[in-house]
UniProtKB/TrEMBL annotation:
GO terms for cellular component: endoplasmic reticulum membrane; late endosome; perinuclear region of cytoplasm; rough endoplasmic reticulum. Residues 53-180 form the LRAT domain. It is an enzyme of class 2 (transferase). The gene is Lrat. The chain crosses the membrane at residues 198-231. It comes from Oxyruncus cristatus. InterPro entries: LRAT, LRAT_dom. Transfers the acyl group from the sn-1 position of phosphatidylcholine to all-trans retinol, producing all-trans retinyl esters. Retinyl esters are storage forms of vitamin A. LRAT plays a critical role in vision. It provides the all-trans retinyl ester substrates for the isomerohydrolase which processes the esters into 11-cis-retinol in the retinal pigment epithelium; due to a membrane-associated alcohol dehydrogenase, 11 cis-retinol is oxidized and converted into 11-cis-retinaldehyde which is the chromophore for rhodopsin and the cone photopigments. It is found in: Cytoplasm, Perinuclear region; Endoplasmic reticulum membrane; Late endosome; Rough endoplasmic reticulum. It is a single-pass membrane protein. The active site is at C164. This is Lecithin retinol acyltransferase. The lineage of its organism: Eukaryota, Metazoa, Chordata, Craniata, Vertebrata.
Length: 233
């Protein structure tokens, strides 16, 4: 029988990270009052090389992609649509808010190719900024691009264990890791280990449940008590 404690912790952490993503991510174009993406040509891609790792810093997180050349970026995005259709023409349309959020909840995504403009959405772009952290582990540029191309299409998704950062680090460095996830988990551990922050931790957990919901059969003791014990251990 699987240990329910790590599962409960993972569920709560993912819901908290979803709140962060929903509130700060400048979503792409679509229905419901969403804004229009920047026009083509807003970015100078002349210095980009095939296989480059692109980063777009946001307020509380970073979005990642692999440059494929000719103004194309491969990146992993949550998306519910691949669960319902194989129509590539529909899937390739710019991801809307609803598609993205439902994809996170359903843990489905796709590795897709978009223009640099749609990928960056007005944000500044850093190129190969993570190379300094991996030293001699950087793969060849062509190998990085080919890995990204081989992973194109629908895939499982997890905010903690399989996100856009895992995708690009696998492609460029050969190992899927996420420093954003590590930092987030360490921050949560620090908060919970601080006895003065226990009440705040409970309130944050309750807020995540109210905003995103849990299964009706899930009770507070089964979620929070094992979670606190596991994180404090």
């Amino acid at each position: 029988m699987k240990n329910p404690v790590p599962q409960a912790a993972s569920l709560l952490l993912e819901k908290l990270m979803l709140l962060v993503h929903v509130h700060v991510r400048p979503f792409l174009a679509g229905s419901g009052g969403e804004t229009t993406p920047p026009a083509p040509g807003d970015y100078d891609t002349s210095s980009f090389k095939r296989g480059d790792l692109l980063e777009v810093p946001r307020t509380l997180f970073i979005h990642f992609g692999i440059y494929l050349g000719e103004n194309r970026v491969a990146h992993l995005m949550p998306d519910i649509l691949p669960s319902f259709t194989d129509d590539l023409q529909q899937i390739q349309q710019v991801v809307t808010n609803k598609r993205l959020i439902l994809g996170v909840i359903a843990r489905t995504a796709s590795v897709r190719v978009d223009t640099v403009e749609d990928f960056a959405y007005g944000g500044s772009i850093l190129v190969n900024h993570m190379d300094r952290l991996f030293e001699d582990q950087v793969l060849g540029s062509e190998e990085s691009a080919r890995r990204a191309e081989k992973l194109m299409g629908a895939t499982a998704y997890s905010l903690l264990w399989n996100n856009c950062e895992h995708f690009v680090t696998y492609c460029r460095y050969g190992a899927p890791v996420s420093f954003q996830t590590d930092k987030f988990c360490e921050t949560v551990k620090m908060i919970i280990r601080d006895q003065r922050s226990v009440l705040a931790s409970v309130l944050v957990g309750l807020a995540s449940i109210v905003c995103l919901g849990l299964a009706p059969s899930t009770t507070l003791p089964t979620i929070f008590i094992p979670f606190f014990l596991w994180m404090a251990g």
